[in-house]
């Protein structure tokens, strides 16, 4: 048998047991196959099994390599080890059968390593053998029944760390434990890669794991640690050479598909994205090519319609891509498919839409970070706007903002500041700034957009009304109510003149105007536009829409403020149920309705309900916003109100103090909400002083 160079065999205990069960306890199994990708440790597992169970196989263990003629090797083994001499007048098959018939008593283990074609390499000699002969083969191919497969996967993260520790030592691993985990992950927990890198580190004790990881990230498969096996290793090939054996057995289209898959992010790949990739604008039969990759374990099926490449195979295919004649065309086609996904993402996607889009998101990020030069000028802005829409829909405004800011830099470099679509990008960015309470930045962008539109389109164009409405909402958020009201009335008149009264844009303006009246406690003026906006949206959009939920929340808040608590509670509950169905609980809109309901319950004296929802809102707000956002302050304030209503002033003070700090940092010291919070805190401290 070959020499095993393993220092410590780890992570395969269950596989050893399963293999023994297949060969010994299942009498129906004539042939068992250890199956897996190159470098996963098939040969080593077979070696460990053979050494562990020498006593079981009293008739001997015969190790054969399918890289040479199996029949010749078997006859040679019988002559040298068993002193059998088959007659010279028999052909090779006859001599094999003679040896099998005369073999020593007891069970026999025949190990055939590196099988690439079982029918031609093995079955022709061993099709009918006595049941005491157990055949164990190692192969990269997915063989079919009656051969029973033991599919060998990469190591678990824990086993990978144990393997690395056995080579570099516990102390060295302990000093850089986090880097060691990253190193194992970069190698995809592949035993061959781990052993190569471990032995390389063993040979250079001054090389840190941090330096090793940095070099691998820079040099990829060309790094000398992965390039050549050490003489004492079981496997004699480097990673690229091991993969090359499988590459040569692929058809041209399967090779091309492997290269295409390497363009995707290191994440599960939805097959529907692959099917859209063309060559010379012609669809390809990628399914047949996929079969070739799966057959040789060069691609993993992760779920229905979902596939993934091993990290090191992805590196290998990326290297091969550089040598393909169609490499540039494939990159453009790949980017076109991914861009199409981004362009279909709505600005406020529902939970189901987010769920449907999520598998494609890592691949959108891959294009944004590494292949953006292959996105056409026409698609550039829409790609980023759609991608940002996904994060916006999840309430992850920081990620959405980062994408649009990245887009702004790229657009200015590629297209200049006066490209017709630049306004779309700036508008989306301004809306996101507004959502994050970055009002000054939002106002500045909206004013830039307004000036640009007025110059190009004139004062009465529908797009002017759109920007004026957004600017009015920023003024409203800043507490600049007279400016906000003036703009909203102007927008309402313009939109009604353009569209009539039955239009969603009119509903949007009515809702904004009602909110401005409401913030000034002009409740009689606020009620009618709130109702009009709600009824318009319900009529035009149907009940299952985020804008309807928003109108319900606004109506509920209005009813609460004028003391109509029953109507307020019913509307809040409807809004919360809608938000939960459409956007999920971890979204700012759900949070807004939640702490509004907290205020309502507190006002009604329903303190147990109020406390429960207050705690939920604090947890959710910190989860969504981290710590610096007005919504976090509102949640803290609501919890403080609950304690205050019960006379627990000492528990209330730190909550209101923190809420005031957040308001001052995010809204400014003179914002109405900040002033109101400061007054509440001062009142509370007066009460605490009077009680002492």
**How far is it from the N-terminal to the C-terminal residue, by CA?**
88 Å
Helix fraction bin: 55-70%
Strand composition percent: 5-15%
Q: Can you count the helices? A: 34
Number of beta-strand segments: 10
Shape: elongated
Mean pLDDT: 91
CATH fold descriptor of the domain at 13-151? Rossmann fold
Low-confidence stretches: none
The description of the largest β-sheet is: 5 strands, parallel
Secondary-structure content class: alpha/beta
CATH architecture of the domain at 13-151: 3-Layer(aba) Sandwich
Q: For the largest sheet, list the strands in their spatial order.
A: 2-3-4-1-5
- Rg on CA atoms, Å: 34 Å
CATH class value of the domain at 13-151: Alpha Beta
CATH homologous superfamily label of the domain at 13-151: P-loop containing nucleotide triphosphate hydrolases
């Amino acid at each position: 048998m070959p020499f095993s160079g393993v220092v410590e065999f780890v992570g395969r205990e269950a596989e050893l047991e399963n293999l023994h069960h297949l060969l010994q306890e299942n009498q129906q199994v004539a042939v068992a196959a250890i199956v897996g990708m190159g470098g996963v440790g098939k040969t080593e597992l077979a070696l460990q099994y053979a050494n562990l169970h020498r006593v079981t196989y009293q008739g001997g263990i015969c190790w054969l390599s399918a890289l040479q003629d199996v029949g010749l090797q078997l006859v040679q083994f019988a002559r040298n080890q068993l002193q059998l001499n088959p007659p010279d007048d028999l052909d090779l098959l006859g001599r094999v059968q003679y040896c099998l018939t005369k073999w020593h008593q007891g069970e026999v283990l025949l190990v055939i390593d590196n099988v690439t074609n079982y029918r031609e390499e093995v079955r022709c000699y061993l099709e009918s053998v006595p049941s005491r002969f157990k055949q164990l083969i190692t192969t990269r191919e997915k063989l079919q029944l009656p051969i029973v497969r033991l599919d060998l996967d990469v190591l678990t993260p824990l086993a990978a760390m144990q393997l690395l520790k056995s080579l570099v030592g516990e102390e060295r691993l302990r000093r850089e434990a986090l880097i060691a985990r990253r190193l194992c992950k970069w190698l995809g927990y592949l035993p061959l890669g781990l052993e190569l890198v471990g032995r390389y580190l063993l040979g250079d004790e001054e090389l840190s794991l941090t330096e090793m990881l940095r070099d691998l990230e820079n040099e990829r498969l060309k790094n000398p640690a992965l390039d050549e096996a050490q003489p004492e290793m079981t496997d004699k090939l480097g990673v690229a050479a091991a993969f090359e054996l499988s590459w040569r057995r692929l058809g041209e289209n399967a090779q091309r598909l492997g290269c295409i898959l390497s363009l995707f992010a290191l994440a599960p790949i939805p097959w529907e994205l692959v099917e859209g990739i063309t060559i010379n604008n012609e669809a390809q039969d990628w399914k047949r090519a996929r079969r070739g990759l799966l057959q040789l374990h060069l691609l993993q099926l992760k779920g229905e319609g979902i596939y993934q490449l091993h990290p090191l195979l992805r590196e290998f295919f990326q290297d091969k891509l550089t040598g393909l004649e169609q490499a540039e065309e494939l990159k453009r086609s790949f980017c076109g498919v991914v861009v199409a996904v981004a362009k279909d993402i709505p600005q406020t996607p529902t939970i189901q839409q987010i769920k449907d889009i999520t598998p494609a998101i890592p691949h959108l990020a891959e294009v944004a970070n590494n292949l953006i030069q292959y996105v056409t000028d026409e698609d550039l802005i829409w790609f980023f706007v759609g991608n940002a829409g996904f994060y916006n829909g999840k309430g992850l405004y920081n990620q959405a903002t980062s994408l649009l800011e990245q887009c702004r830099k790229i657009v200015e470099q590629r297209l200049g500041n006066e490209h017709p679509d630049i306004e779309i990008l700036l508008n989306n960015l301004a809306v996101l700034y507004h959502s994050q309470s970055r009002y000054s930045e939002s106002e500045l962008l909206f004013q830039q957009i307004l000036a640009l539109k007025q110059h190009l389109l004139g004062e009465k164009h529908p797009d002017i009304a759109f920007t004026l409405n957004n600017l009015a909402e920023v003024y409203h958020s800043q507490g600049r109510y007279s400016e906000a009201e003036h703009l909203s009335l102007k927008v309402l008149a313009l939109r009604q003149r353009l569209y009539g009264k039955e239009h969603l844009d009119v509903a949007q303006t009515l809702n904004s105007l009602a909110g401005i009246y409401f913030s000034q406690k002009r409740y009689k003026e606020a009620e009618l536009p709130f109702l009009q906006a709600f009824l318009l949206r319900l009529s035009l959009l149907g009940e299952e829409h985020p804008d309807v939920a928003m109108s319900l929340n606004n109506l509920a808040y209005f009813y609460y403020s004028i003391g109509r608590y029953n109507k307020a509670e019913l509307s809040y509950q409807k809004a919360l149920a809608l938000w939960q169905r459409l956007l999920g609980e971890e979204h700012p809109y759900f949070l807004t309705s939640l702490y509004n309901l907290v205020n309502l319950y507190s006002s009604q004296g329903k303190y147990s309900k109020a406390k429960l929802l207050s705690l939920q809102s604090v947890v959710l707000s910190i989860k969504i916003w981290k710590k610096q956002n007005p919504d976090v302050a509102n949640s803290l304030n609501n919890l403080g109100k609950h304690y205050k209503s019960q006379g627990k002033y000492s528990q209330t003070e730190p909550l209101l103090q923190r809420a005031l700090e957040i308001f001052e940092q995010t809204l400014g010291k003179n914002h109405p909400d900040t002033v109101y919070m400061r007054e509440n805190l001062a009142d509370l401290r007066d009460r605490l002083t009077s009680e002492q």
